[in-house]
């Protein structure tokens, strides 16, 4: 019996040891697995948004140095929250553009002896976009309607719209706002009148019983104007305290240094770029009021902004450049006239079908639009420009449809070079664009003249509008 008891005790002991050993091994294995899992750290992409209280913001506003002081209220605080929390991307976009236009605004406002902080109004008007257009037809950084623009020397035709000229529009805005201030004796009411018109402000004053402050007539103003001035005041605060709200830019945008030159003739920016060795996209960016890259006879004395690095050379040889551009323009006009009388060619469904036109070495190509095509990429592939494509095909916009036939004229040598560049590939090499300092997706879309921001984002798998200088973007 003792032997049996001894055997059972021994068996239980070794069973315990074995069980303990297994559990220890399992524990070690689980521990190692846990350690390995901890080594794989998830990469969460988030942006820290600091908390802030009403009292903290009120104290900062009270300490602000400004010629247009204001006191915080719930309406202004709501817009501060909007610009720093809910729509930070808009605020970052504005930060990206402010260096392009704020120096001009500040200089103009100083010349007119006006509060410098009025510069923030352009953010509410246009988001600092010189080509911004409202649903009712207001244009430019300061959103002038055609009639009001003409009152302040901003004229427009099919090819030039002065409302999109930063200098002319800023000068006009300063003069208009100063006249509104003289009218009402209060800057907040002047801003309100800039938005809804002086007539509506007068009505609001009358209905309020003669009160002459913005908040005194607030309830009697149009709904849009009630939020207009609080947005302006919120932006005055936000752009002074970007660091407090963790609003930073990875790559600030800097303006292109330029000088103005008068050529006193009709001008095609593409021809000027070719003759002077200037990037046509830079000319477009510096001259946003010029539409279709053309300066017509009605604007002969218009000063053209050119990059400063080329300005001295162009100015020193202005007459020669002007003559060269004129001759290039005349040749283009003659070519268009010649091509307009050429025998029509039967449309075919391939891009490489060509035939000799009456212009000798010129090739007439019939191109069939395919899915994903835009005018910018079609022009690039065929060694021509969007402007010429639109002229040859009587297009009034950049819109094209799949299956549409486009006529393209190109020089024989250029045509052969294009074929040589594409030889050995199944199709044309992918077009790309290298992001330059100061570029935004919107500006790039305008440079490409036919590619939209949405198309750029889709082609490049972009989740936001953020891009960096040197980045390669597919454009087709």
Automatic annotation (TrEMBL):
SMART domains registered for this protein in UniProt: LysM
Stretches of the chain forming a coiled coil according to its record: none
All residue ranges annotated as the LysM domain in the record: 365-408, 431-475
Claim: RNA-binding is one of the keywords in the record: no
InterPro entries: LysM (IPR018392), LysM_dom_sf (IPR036779), Lysozyme-like_dom_sf (IPR023346), Transglyc_AS (IPR000189), Transglycosylase_SLT_dom_1 (IPR008258)
Signal sequence, renumbered to the chain: 1-24
UniProt keywords, alphabetically: Signal
Highest taxon, organism lineage: Bacteria
Family per similarity comment: Belongs to the transglycosylase Slt family.
The protein's name: LysM peptidoglycan-binding domain-containing protein
UniProt organism field: Mariniradius sediminis
């Amino acid at each position: 019996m003792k032997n049996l008891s001894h055997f059972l005790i021994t068996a239980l002991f070794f069973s315990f040891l074995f069980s303990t050993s297994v559990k220890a091994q399992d524990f070690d294995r689980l521990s190692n697995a846990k350690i390995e899992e901890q080594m794989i750290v998830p990469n969460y992409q988030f942006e820290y948004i600091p908390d802030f209280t009403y009292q903290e913001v009120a104290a900062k506003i009270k300490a602000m140095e400004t010629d247009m002081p204001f006191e915080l209220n719930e309406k202004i605080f709501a817009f501060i929250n909007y610009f720093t929390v809910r729509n930070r991307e808009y605020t970052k976009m504005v930060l990206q553009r402010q260096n392009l236009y704020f120096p001009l605004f500040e200089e103009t406002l100083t010349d007119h002896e006006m509060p410098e902080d009025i510069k923030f109004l352009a953010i509410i008007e246009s988001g600092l976009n010189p080509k911004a257009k409202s649903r009712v037809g207001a244009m430019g950084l300061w959103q002038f309607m055609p009639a009001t623009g003409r009152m302040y020397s901003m004229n427009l035709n099919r090819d030039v719209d002065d409302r999109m000229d930063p200098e002319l529009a800023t000068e006009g805005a300063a003069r208009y706002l100063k006249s509104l201030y003289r009218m009402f004796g209060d800057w907040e009411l002047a801003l309100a009148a800039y938005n809804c018109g002086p007539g509506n402000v007068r009505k609001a004053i009358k209905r309020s019983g003669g009160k002459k402050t913005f908040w005194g007539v607030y309830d009697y103003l149009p709904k849009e104007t009630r939020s207009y001035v609080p947005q302006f005041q919120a932006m005055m605060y936000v752009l002074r305290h970007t660091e407090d709200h963790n609003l930073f830019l990875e790559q600030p945008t800097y303006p292109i240094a330029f000088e103005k030159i008068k050529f006193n003739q009709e001008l095609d920016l593409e021809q000027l770029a070719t003759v002077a060795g200037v990037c046509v996209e830079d000319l477009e960016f510096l001259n946003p009021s010029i539409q279709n890259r053309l300066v017509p006879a009605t604007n002969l004395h218009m000063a053209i902004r050119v990059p400063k690095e080329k300005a001295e050379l162009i100015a020193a040889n202005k007459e020669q450049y002007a003559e060269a551009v004129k001759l290039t323009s005349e040749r283009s006009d003659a070519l268009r006239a010649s091509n307009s009388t050429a025998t029509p060619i039967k449309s075919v469904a391939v891009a490489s079908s060509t035939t000799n036109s009456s212009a000798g070495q010129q090739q007439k190509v019939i191109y069939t639009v395919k899915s994903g095509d835009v005018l910018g990429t079609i022009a690039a592939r065929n060694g021509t420009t969007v402007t010429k494509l639109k002229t040859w095909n009587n297009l009034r916009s950049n819109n094209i449809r799949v299956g549409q036939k486009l006529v393209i004229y190109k020089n024989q040598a250029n045509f052969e070079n294009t074929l040589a560049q594409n030889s050995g590939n199944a199709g044309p090499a992918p077009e790309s664009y290298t992001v330059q300092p100061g570029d935004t997706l919107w500006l790039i879309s305008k440079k490409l003249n036919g590619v939209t921001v949405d198309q750029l984002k889709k082609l490049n798998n972009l989740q936001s509008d953020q891009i960096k200088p040197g980045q390669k973007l597919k454009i087709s």
